[in-house]
Amino acid sequence: MVFFNTCGPNEAMVVSGCFHARPALVSGGRIFVWPVFQKLQRISLNTMTLNVESPRVYTRHGVPISVTGIAQVKIQGQNQEMLHAACQQFLGKSAEQTRHIALETLEGHQRAIMGTMTVEEIYRDRKKFSKSVFEVASSDLVNMGISIVSYTIKDIRDEEGYLHALGMSRTAQVKRDARIGEAEAKRDSGIKEAIAEEARLKAKYENDTQIAKAKRDFELKKAGYDIEVQTKNATSQMAYNLQAAVTKQKIKEEEMQIKVVERGQQIKVQEQEIARRERELEATVRQPAEAEKYRLEKLAEANRNRVILEAEAQSEAIKVKGDAEAFAIEAKAKAEAEQMAKKADAWKEYREAAIVDMVLETMPKIAAEIAAPLSQVNKITMVSNGKGEVGASKVTGEILDIVAKLPKAVEALTGIDISKAMSLSNRV
Hints:
One of its GO terms (biological process) is positive regulation of endocytosis. Its main location: membrane. This is Band 7 domain-containing protein. This protein is an alpha+beta fold and about 425 residues long. The protein is about 70% helix and about 15% strand. The strands form three sheets. It has a three-stranded antiparallel beta sheet with strand order 3-2-5, with helices on one face. α2 (about 95-115) crosses α4, α5 (about 160-350) crosses α6 (about 350-375) and α6 packs antiparallel against α7. The mean pLDDT is about 80.
């Protein structure tokens, strides 16, 4: 959109003018701005690094020192109240002007804190000094909308040599304490070594005495134990021999008992073998014979049933076939009767024409029957006097002569002149 304005997370937009009783603040987002009626301004939220210098500041004991601190500050964009205060203080100013104001504030508080502490406190407890400056400066900068991200001491120095002398004194004191401590340590070490040696020798003698006493007690107890062991061994040997004889007797009895059991087991095995063979005979001979008998009986019964069913089916088929043939014959007879009746009616009306038609249909059949014997002849021997045709044409001519005589034969039988009837038909 043309009137929408956006900004990144490192800056904030301030919109003032119509429709806003209080300026609208947006950090890292977008906002609609009416041109002419509203004004858009931007303020940076970037972190600023400040090098806080405090040269020659007199401490609580009047010793001048210089302190350099490093502070990271930024305008707080997440808190609306702090951002509003920052806008009142720095809106329209450059980042360098904002940085200068924050730096002056931190320098003033750093100098004030230095004046309330000694050189030793500042030098030895820098963490406490940094914390004090951080807490005091934060209260003022927060009112401006600026938060201190971090603050630490970078350097402490002086031009009078106070820190050097303080270091030399402390170094000498530490060296003295180190020499005294070393001497005391050596003395204590010697005393402790003598006491330890005395205790070692005493412990050694007591230990040797205890060893000799323990050795004597061991020898006495060992002799007593040896007597007991030998006695026990003799008793054990006699008991062993007796127990061995008893055990051998028991073994023999057990062996006899085992043989008896084995004999009984063999008898049982033989009985089981006999029973097994009987069952095998039953399974391999009797049961298969009974099964075969049962199978043959079932096959005979099934064959008998099959023959009966086939006979019944054949009888039924013959009956059905007879009924069908009777029906067909009856239908054929009816059809032929109707045909004959129609032919009779036709002959009554067209007697001569019908006879001619019948003769004409029959003549090819008659010719075929006349020529049929010739198709069965393998060889023909013809005798000729040299006059007329000879060969196949002779045979064909004779057949045609026979066919040509048919009209005369029909006229003699029926009284109808076929040649005349055919010529009349052609004229029509």
